[in-house]
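This section describes the prediction task in plain terms. A model, or a person checking by hand, is given the sequence of a single protein chain and must write out its three-dimensional structure as a string of tokens. No templates, partner chains or ligands are provided. The sample shown here is typical of the held-out split.
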Amino acid sequence: MPDWERMSLDVTFLGSGDAFGSGGRLQACIALRWDGQHVLLDCGASSLIALRRGGLEPTSVDAILISHLHGDHFGGLPFFVLDQQFSRRERPLLVAGPPGLKARTQQAMEVLFPGSSETRQRFELQWVELGERAEMDLGSVRVTAYAVPHASGAPAYALRVACADKVVAYSGDGAWSEALVEASAGADLFICEAYTFDRPVRYHLDYASLCQHRDQLRCRQLVLTHMGRDMLDRTVATTRAEDGLTLTL
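The expected answer:
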């Protein structure tokens, strides 16, 4: 049996909150770590804080996968890139996400730190645009993106990420759609938004709707994230993420 078939995957919820810090939670940032590899799912504006609070050095991150272009999911990239520049990073960093990710990040950098987007990095910064339903080999991971209903000025994706012999699916943000069934099929873990308990919010998924479709999800484990105040005040049977939670698959 190849060594990678015996590897464990640690999934750490560095940030499990919504855009507004409900419950004192940090914004979306999930670390996947296995066999010396380190990949982030989303990089919300508070991600540097989340990484250091979790005892993880940003220089250890090999790749960042972005679900969609809202600030609580990609807004930490300007800070992350600048931090790596000042930390004298030398090895490459890969950043992958929806079409327009590079341009939107550079625009954000210019708003936050004028002139910073034109600074030549000490390290190779690789930008990859994910195409819908196209499995892409990104070195240590294979990623498939599925379009979900969420207005963000660019396509919004649920992501299916294969790390060695483990598969993690991530809904990002979005109303219920059959894309979530496809993305999570057979996954070892499906990390799914549950923004509200049963109150419909356009372009978001509520827990009641998720429960209605639970039998369609063929994942081995389901964990809720991106919960607003309404959801945090409820008691539910499904496992809920919290900042600092680590699951080993």
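For orientation: The domain at 8-244 is CATH 3.60.15.10 (Metallo-beta-lactamase; Chain A).
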